[in-house]
């Protein structure tokens, strides 16, 4: 009889766990994203979890590295990159749900230095004529580096500055180079200079010189159903407020 009672109790507990009044806990979402988004998305992820009870796990790296991981089968539910070509590559490989793809954010380039650095007028021209190095992301895998190359080519400084370049694995590493004094100048996104008291912006190129910096986002086939509400949340008012506070400009939904 005692064994029967234990079996009955176990069955009742199992039924209670599955009852409509006790919703099952949703598994965490996994989002792979560009390194420049780490602060903003981390804050948005916490806000999402507070509102929904569902956790979000992020994996941040340079967009090229993120895209290659997704191509290799990394278990992501959604992906946010810092330029369109890498997302095009994932689309061509069938690694994203094409109808879920959106343009999420815009950004701008700036030239940064340590907060105690002297004014240099046009810092890149001064660097070309003097000493020191300028840090940028690796143009072959880091969108910020590719955008920096595009801008410097437009200014006619790319060839001149080639011997002075220090390339980094992602845009946050560029910022670290400058903070440590390993390079007096760095070219990063405006969002990377926000809230960093030991750095300052020496130059922000005018709008006519700025590359078209767009951050696309998409769901993967694995996360097409589970992560769709989170992707929609990224376009909502709370996420937009956080993105703006970190120096990004949300793209209005069509």
Detailed description of the structure:
- The protein is an alpha/beta fold and 254 residues long.
- It folds into two domains: 26-106 and 214-250, 3-Layer(aba) Sandwich (D-Maltodextrin-Binding Protein, domain 2), CATH 3.40.190; 109-209, D-Maltodextrin-Binding Protein, domain 2.
- Helices cover 39% and strands 20% of the residues.
- Helix 2 packs antiparallel against helix 11 (237-245) and helix 3 (63-71) runs parallel beside helix 4.
- The N and C termini lie far apart (66 Å).
- 41% of the residues are buried.
- The model is unreliable at 1-23 (pLDDT under 50).
Keyphrases for this structure?
globular, disordered N terminus, 254 residues, 2 domains, alpha/beta, single chain, D-Maltodextrin-Binding Protein, domain 2, 11 helices
SSE topology:
Layout lengths: L1 H16 L11 E6 L3 H15 L3 E6 L1 H9 L6 E3 L3 H9 L9 E5 L2 E6 L8 H7 L4 E4 L5 H12 L3 H4 L3 E4 L2 H9 L5 E5 H4 L5 E5 L10 E6 L8 H6 L3 H9 L3 E2 L4
Parallel strand pairs: 1-2, 1-3, 6-7, 6-8
Antiparallel strand pairs: 3-10, 4-10, 4-11, 5-8, 5-9
Helix pairs in contact: 2-11, 3-4
Keywords: Metal-binding, Signal
Family: Belongs to the bacterial solute-binding protein ModA family.
Organism: Brevundimonas albigilva
């Amino acid at each position: 009889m005692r064994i029967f009672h234990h079996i009955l109790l176990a069955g009742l507990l199992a039924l209670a766990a599955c009852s409509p009044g006790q919703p099952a806990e949703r598994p965490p979402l996994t989002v792979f994203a560009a390194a420049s988004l780490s602060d903003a998305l981390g804050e948005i992820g916490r806000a999402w979890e507070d509102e929904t009870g569902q956790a979000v796990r992020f994996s941040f790296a340079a967009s090229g590295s993120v895209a290659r991981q997704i191509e290799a089968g990394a278990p992501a539910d959604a992906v946010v990159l810092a330029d369109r070509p890498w997302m095009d590559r994932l689309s061509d490989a069938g690694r994203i749900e094409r109808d879920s793809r959106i343009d999420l954010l815009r950004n701008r380039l700036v030239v940064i230095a340590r907060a105690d650095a002297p004014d240099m007028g046009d810092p890149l021209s001064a660097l070309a004529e003097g000493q020191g190095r300028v840090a940028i992301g690796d143009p072959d895998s880091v969108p910020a580096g590719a955008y920096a190359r595009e801008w410097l080519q437009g200014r006619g400084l790319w060839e001149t500055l080639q011997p002075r370049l220090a390339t980094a694995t992602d845009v946050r590493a560029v910022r670290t180079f400058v903070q440590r004094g390993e390079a007096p100048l760095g070219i990063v996104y405006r969002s990377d200079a926000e809230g960093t008291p030991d750095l300052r912006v020496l130059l922000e190129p005018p709008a006519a010189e700025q590359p078209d910096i767009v951050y696309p986002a998409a769901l993967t086939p694995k996360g097409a159903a589970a992560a769709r509400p989170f992707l929609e949340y990224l376009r909502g008012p709370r996420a937009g407020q956080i993105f703006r506070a970190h120096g990004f400009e949300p793209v209005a939904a069509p």
